[in-house]
Amino acid sequence: MTMRKLVIVGDTLLDRDVDGEVSRIAPDAPAPVLDERTVHERPGGAGLAALLAAGDGHRVALVTALASDAAGARLSELLTAAGVELYPLPLPGATPEKVRLRANGQVLLRLDRGGDPEPPEEAPPAALEVLRDADAILVSDYGRGVTRHPALRAALEKATAPVVWDPHPKGPAPVPDCRLVTPNLAEVCALTGDAGQGSTLTTAQRAGHVLRQRWRAAAVAVTCGPGGAVLCHSGPTPLVVPAPHVAAGDTCGAGDRFAATAALALAGGALLSEAVEQAVHAATNRISHEKTDKSTIEEVRARNGVVVATGGCFDLLHTGHLATLEAARQLGDCLVVCLNSDESVRALKGPDRPLNNQHDRARLLSALDCVDAVVVFDEPTPEAVLSWLRPDIWVKGGDYADGGPELPESALVERWGGQTVIVPYLDGRSTTRTIAAARGGRR
What we know:
Strand content: 25-35%
Largest sheet: 6 strands, parallel
Structural class: alpha/beta
């Protein structure tokens, strides 16, 4: 799916997380005093969907509305820095903001700025032209008015690319003939007035078919969180796509990841069933990745445990890999595997590798009892991800067991007091040898 052009249409806002510490109560009011430590800003709404898709290596254009204020300027800066082509419509008033005040990861208060939604002004010709050049279109509605814009709706109705519409209870109905509409379970109940009686499956099926007929959509995929998704199409029997595993973590962005993945899959010629299956896996991995990034290591370090990391391509998982991973896990309290992405493997092993894509490789590794988390990196070497993880122990396989040059990452790991160690390989186990044997050759 790499290098297809995804055009996203929708409302963008600025998310700002203010993290600090609370150690006292204000003397003039019964309220905690937050001492600010860090501020993190990121695009929200349709901007987050654009950021995620661009981060996966896709060409992404965003048609949205921004005011001429500091928040609008900051969003433009963040999005263009991420490689997103920005097509802004003038927005009267202020760019919407959501400011979360947090202590120890707990939200104390959310402050919303921007006031009531205002309809955006006239769309520039380039914003309409880019819809005609799209390989896929995602409409990411956050109920603030972009998707009500008459010129944009007319252009969406004429689009030849597959349109995936992520609706909002406060937004308008999707344009007719969308390839896929992706409400979550709460939204589908709110949009249909369904009381939600019965199981999740029966509710999703019942309300999803109502929306599909009302909106004249080819299909409606109702996302059900850890329950996966229910695809309601023209046939009487829905397709249920379960989540590949239970993912406990931050769900922010999971819906955006689902919708963008489905749109890009349809652009590549996937069937609706295939697109929804890919989208469920991508959304689940999004949540799992957030858990990897935040919870696993923090939990271990909170109890003064030892974080162990190792890395590799793990293209064809074999017993040699398993022996190395089990040995590494015994050295500490959690094991994080730094996994070379598909792009990284091609650079290291050649254009015919990997045989298995990074999502399948990560899923297989995650299923092992000895692996606590998997982090995928794009660079040829893992220095960047190691600098972020800062493991106490970095484990290498037995290539270096009999001496030779210094291990490549040793100096880096020593900077934060970490240690690099070697564990032995099982003799005779090799991905390259396995591939050669399967092809009838020898190496």
